[in-house]
Amino acid sequence: SAAEKGGYEHFMAKEIMEQPEAIRKTISPRIQDGRVVLDDLALTARDVAEMDKLCVIACGSSYHVGMNAKYILEKLLRKPVEVTLASEFRYCDPIVTEHTLALVISQSGETIDTLAAMREAKRLGAKVLSIVNVVGSTIARESDGVLYTWAGPEIAVATTKAYSTQLAVIYLIGLYCAQLLGSIPQDEYDGILSELQAIPDKMEEILENRSDIQYFASIYFNHPSMFFIGRNLDYAVGLEGSLKLKEISYIHSEAYAAGELKHGTISLIEPGTLVVALAGYGALFEKTMSNVVEVKSRGADVLGLTTHSRAAEMAKTADHVISVPDTHPLLLPSLEVVPMQLLAYYVALQRGCDIDKPRNLAKSVTVE
Ligand code: G6P
Fold first, then answer.
1. What separation in Å is there between the alpha carbon of 235 and the centre of ligand 1?
2. Non-local CB neighbours of 146 within 8 Å, separated by 6+ positions
3. Other Cβ atoms closer than 10 A to 351
4. Which run of H or E residues covers position 247?
5. Which of 29, 181, 183, 290 is at 20 to 30 A from 156, Cα to Cα?
6. Is 60 in the pocket of ligand 1 (CB under 6 A)?
7. Pocket of ligand 1 contains residue 159 by CB under 6 Å
8. pLDDT by residue (tens digit) across 16-33?
9. ipTM over 0.85
10. Distances from the Cα of 171 to the Cαs of 75, 102, 193, in angstroms?
11. Distance between CA 118 and CA 123 in Å, rounded?
12. Whose Cα sits closest to atom 2 in ligand 1?
C-alpha cells in the first residue's frame, strides 16, 4: 500500500530516500570520542598485523561493494584485497591461510553461493567476518564476527540502502584496522572519519536535487544501450550503476574500466550511444576525460558524473553533468552511487517497468 511505501510510488524510491538515515544508524553507534570502535569483532592488533590478505566474497551488488572495498582497504591498510564472486570462490580452490580474513558481504545473509563460499573459507582456516543486514540470518550466525548494517528491511529487489550501509561498514573496518596497524597518519584518519560522518548530509543534498536526474532520465530513457566508464573507485561505482539500470529498466548496459575501452568496447560506440562517464576521483580526472573525448569523437552522448569542483571543467566536453558534493576521494562512492540509483529508477519509471519486482529476479537467491 501507499502507506507502507511511506507515500512513495515504489519501495525502491522510499529506500533510496532512507539512505542518509540508514547510514547514520549504521555508523554512529560505532564512532566514539573521535574513533571507530568495533571491539566486539575480537580482532587484535596482532591479528591485523599478521593478516596476509583479505578475501572479499559476495554476489551481485554486494560484490560491487567488494569492488569498492578493494580500492579502499588496499589504500588504508596496504594489504592485498582479493574480491571474488561467491559462485566462483566455491570452485576455484582458493588460496586461504589461517592468517586470511574472509570478508563476506550479504544483505539477506541467506544467498546460497555466498554461504557455501563462506563455509569453504572457514574450512580452509580463514577467520570470517560478515557484513549482513538481516539479523540472525544464516551467514550472520555462522561467521566468527558480524557487523550488521542497520538499513532496516529492504523490500525492493534492486538494493539501494543495503549497498550504501555495506559501504559505510567498509569504511569503519578500514579505519578500525588502519588504527590497529598504524598504517595511516592520525590527521588522515581524522579527516576520513569526519568526512564519513558528513556523508548523510551530503547525500541529502543529492536527494533534494533528484529532479535534475529525473530530467536526464527523460532525455535518455529510450536509448537502446548504455555504457558506464570510470577508473578506480569510479569504475566500481559504474559497475553498480550499470547493474541497477539493467536490472530494473531492461536496457542493455555494460560497465568498463575507462582505460580498457579501446581494447574492445569502443567498437560499439556510435552516434547516439549513451556513455555515463564517472570522473569524481580527482587524481584520475584527466585520464577519464581523455576517454570521454574519445567516445565523444565517435558520436556518443555523454552524461558525466563528477564533484561540484570539477563540474564546469567536465561540462566543456560532456553533454550533461551531474555533480555531487566534494569529499575525501575514498568516500566518493557513497555519494556517486546515489545519482546512479536515481538514474536507473527514473529511466525504469519512464519505461513503465515493474520497478520493485523486475522480471526473472529474486531478492534473495537461496538455490544454486
Ligand atoms: C540477488 C539480488 C541482488 C543482490 C544479490 C546478493 O541477486 O537481486 O540485489 O545483490 O542477490 O544478495 P545478498 O543478499 O547476498 O546481498
1. 20
2. 129, 130, 131, 132, 139, 140
3. 15
4. helix 233-249
5. 29
6. yes
7. yes
8. 999 999 999 999 999 999
9. yes
10. 11, 16, 8
11. 9
12. 363
